[in-house]
Specification:
The chain has helices at about 25-40, 40-45, 65-75, 85-90, 95-105, 120-130, 135-150, 170, 185-195, 205-215, 220-235, 240-255, 265-280, 285-290, 295-309; strands spanning about 15, 55-60, 80-85, 115-120, 155-160, 175-180. It has about 300 residues and is an alpha/beta fold. The protein folds into two domains: about 15-180, 3-Layer(aba) Sandwich (Rossmann fold); about 185-309, no CATH class. The protein has a six-stranded mixed beta sheet with strand order 1-3-4-5-2-6. Helix 5 packs parallel to helix 7 (about 135-150), helix 12 crosses helix 13 and helix 13 crosses helix 15. The model has no long low-confidence stretch (mean pLDDT about 90). The structure holds adenosine-5'-triphosphate and magnesium ion (MG). Adenosine-5'-triphosphate binds near residues 24, 63 and 220.
Length: about 300
Amino acid sequence: MPRDAGSRLPLIEEGQWPTTPIILGGEAGHRISQFIEDAKHISLLAEKGVSARLGLLLYGPPGTGKTLLAGHIAASLKLPFYIARLDSLISSRLGETAKNIRGVFEFVPARNAVLFFDEMDAIAKLRDDRHELGELKRVVNTVLQGLDSLTDDVVTIGATNHPHLLDPAIWRRFPYKVELALPDEEVRASLWLHFLFQNVAAHKEEADLLARVSDGLNGADIENIALAARRRSILGNQEPSLAQILLAVHASHAGNPRLLDNRELDTTDKKALTRFLHEKGGIRQAEIANVVGVSRQMVHRYLKEASDG
Ligand SMILES: Nc1ncnc2c1ncn2[C@@H]1O[C@H](COP(=O)(O)OP(=O)(O)OP(=O)(O)O)[C@@H](O)[C@H]1O
Ligand SMILES: [Mg+2]
């Protein structure tokens, strides 16, 4: 593997095919299947003169599965998965970054492989960090030349959280673009069912309730809360209740992730959870009472207290 001359760190690592599934929404899933189908039949498409370069750009907020998905694509195509992280290719030594990038492209073309550029927007950071537009241009040009030098059987995937920071010429080199947005309610339900309930269908209603109130959370957030709950149920003598998991979701929204524990809910917790579920709308008071573990009268009182200020 090529290495950075200064730090001796490898410029590329060979990634493993993922063993955990990726859960995608309908639109993204459809586009990805299409990309995979085109990649599998690239020689037929080329013969008919309708092939496009197999460049796919995945963009969207953090924790939505971009890196994981790239590995899945390599696995579906049964190709080795080479990961170049652009942030680690950026050398502190002037001129070295472009050399590193050339090194990556020279390493790959001989192989039938998926070449994955993670954190592609890191190149754009040069603009702020260096005050040296000359180097930024050189680096962008090196990436463009590298992409142009690849043969058709190399699948390139780029991932970025900041698509607007990418140079338009780089953006154009990826004919396939798929946005991985924050998961919608349906995808969140599948994520909860998978990570928390290991896909046991009997838990579908709980997963649906969690999905309903966890808007704004990404896949990685849901995975973190779910695994914390499962750790507590393995190591503690009591499983965290649905109410405790919902409180962790609430805290995660508020931006102060709460340690998920299996202590009984106190009155403050019960009030907070009641209001949280109520604000999400569409959850009946009887259901709130049931989940929080109080009477319906109490739910009514908590909500009244809140609205009276
Ligand atoms: N849609 C999803 N399906 C399954 N797992 C997911 C999904 N989204 C996130 N995860 C979980 O969260 C972890 C982190 O996701 P990943 O690193 O792929 O996100 P990312 O979009 O590359 O984030 P970043 O932009 O921060 O690099 C994954 O390894 C997986 O366990
Ligand atoms: Mg990533």
